[in-house]
TrEMBL record:
This is AI-2E family transporter. Keywords: Membrane, Transmembrane, Transmembrane helix. It is a multi-pass membrane protein. The chain crosses the membrane at residues 7-23, 29-50, 57-79, 135-159, 193-214. Its main location: membrane. GO terms for cellular component: membrane. Pfam families: AI-2E_transport.
């Protein structure tokens, strides 16, 4: 390999490492921004629909964001209630899991496979289950930590979306460029909306299935 090529590959690798490190350290900013962008894309069809009916921007944005925040509050309440009830019944579920493992050990013993009782007790304990519920609560808290900033960013993105085309046209007079940009954003918006609807439908189907078979806290 030539010395020039070696130097080129070293520079590329160093650049990749620097970019990845920058993304890692900037995750505090990047994650809320990407979340805001995702929410804005999902809500933009509703916002544009109300605007197309002649409803003022401030009323349209207030109504759309209000409905969205109410939906989030209901989801947070359901999750919080389920986690609280789950935490209150930790010992009960630990006992049930122990019974299941003991039944499995008995079944395996019939095939000559011995599972020590000490291993069964180490697999199931209240501390592990408490750690699981704590992880869920911490995950929910991390989502809502920057909630206010995310909401403001979403509002800004929705309000600026109507002026985005004009700004691009002002910066670049080429009509083809604007056409391609509009097409790309339209495709991204369609994909995100369809993906969100499919995810909601999948989650609902799983919830119904778990409820039908009697699974506790199916919402989680």
């Amino acid at each position: 390999m030539k010395e020039g090529q070696l130097g080129y590959y070293c520079i590329v690798m160093a650049s990749v490492i620097i970019v990845l490190a920058g993304v890692k350290f900037a995750s505090v900013i990047i994650v809320p921004f990407l979340l805001s962008l995702f929410i804005a894309i999902i809500l933009s069809p509703s916002y544009n629909f109300f605007r197309s009916k002649g409803i003022p921007d401030i009323i349209s944005i207030t109504f759309v964001m209000g409905v969205f925040l109410i939906f989030l509050a209901l989801i947070a309440k359901l999750i919080g209630t389920s986690v609280h009830q789950f935490s209150a019944n930790i010992d009960l579920y630990a006992a049930k899991l122990t019974t299941y493992y003991e039944s499995l050990a008995t079944f395996m013993n019939g095939f000559g496979v011995e599972i020590p009782a000490s291993e069964i007790s180490s697999l199931v304990n209240s501390k592990q289950i408490m750690h699981f519920s704590t992880a869920i609560i911490e995950g929910i808290s991390s989502i809502f930590t920057n909630g206010f900033i995310v909401v403001l960013t979403v509002v800004f993105m929705l309000l600026e979306s109507q002026h985005f085309s004009a700004k691009i046209e002002f910066a670049d007079k080429d009509k083809e460029t604007m056409k391609h940009i509009t097409q790309i954003f339209s495709q991204i918006k369609s994909y995100m909306v369809i993906k969100a609807l499919i995810s909601l439908l999948t989650g609902f189907i799983v919830y119904v299935a778990l409820t039908l078979i009697g699974t506790d806290y199916a919402f989680l």
